[in-house]
TrEMBL record:
Residues 140-238 bind DNA. It comes from Streptomyces coacervatus. This is Response regulator transcription factor. The modification 4-aspartylphosphate is found at residue 53. It is found in: Cytoplasm.
Length: 239
């Protein structure tokens, strides 16, 4: 069966062009014009992935994202935004989005990001199973480095005794860094492993996610764990 996309875009021309392009690419598309319709459709027939415009009248894309995440919906979400400031992109990640594309965009980039998000979705609905609140006992499914502990199967992570609230992308990025602690990973390697696609030297996507992950990891009085190696990439280590 074709994978399903719920597209919410208030600009009629962009909505129709994307709907046609996605359909020709083999997706089954439901296109709506605002956030209210997007939420109603998501509740009625959950899609495999959502493509949400940020700026929509009434309920915007960020609000749609927040509502679905608050309900426990972990369907991958790709945001379409004309906002290019880092703070705006962080707002989208904070709302629960998995990735974003800045307008004007190349439709091939949209396709690439959708494919990457769908590859990372589990064979089921992508929902995270309920798990006990206390940290599980150490086992082979756990990995540790630099004071971090991750339960890969349960998709939970801790720094010391503090549990981290991570999005899907943040968890996968942190897991990659923990598994390669002390090794400098270049930008291309990280893009390929996390997104399945290298967005090129001009992309700020990785820098935004690393910055947001740092905000969740670091606290006053604790050493930084993710270090930038200028011109190369990033490394996880505890100095």
């Amino acid at each position: 069966m074709p994978q399903t996309v719920l597209l919410a875009e208030d600009d009629r021309a962009i909505r129709h062009a994307l709907e046609r392009a996605l359909s020709l690419e083999g997706y089954q598309v439901t296109a709506v014009a605002d956030g209210v319709e997007a939420l109603a459709q998501a509740h009625k027939t959950p899609p495999d992935v959502l493509l949400l415009d940020v700026m929509m009248p009434g309920i915007d894309g960020l609000q749609v994202c927040r509502v679905l995440r608050a309900e426990g919906d972990r369907t991958p979400i790709l945001m379409l935004t004309a906002l290019v400031e880092t703070a705006d992109r962080i707002a989208g990640l904070d709302a629960g989005a998995d990735d974003y594309v800045v307008k004007p965009f190349d439709v091939e980039e949209v396709f690439a990001r959708l494919r990457a998000l769908l590859r990372r979705t589990s064979p089921d609905t992508g929902a995270v199973a309920d798990v006990p609140k206390e940290p599980p006992p150490a086992s082979d499914r756990q990995i540790e480095a630099a004071g971090l502990r991750m339960d890969v199967q349960a998709r939970r992570a801790w720094r010391g005794d503090r549990e981290l609230e991570l999005t899907r992308t943040e968890f996968e990025l942190l897991e990659l860094l923990v598994r390669n602690a002390g090794i400098v990973l270049d930008h291309s390697t990280i893009y390929d492993r996390i997104w399945g696609y290298d967005f090129g030297p001009g992309s700020k996507n990785l820098a935004v996610y690393v910055g947001y992950l740092r905000r969740k990891l670091d606290e006053p009085g604790t050493p930084a764990l993710i270090h930038t190696v200028r011109g190369v990439g990033y490394v996880l280590r505890e100095d």
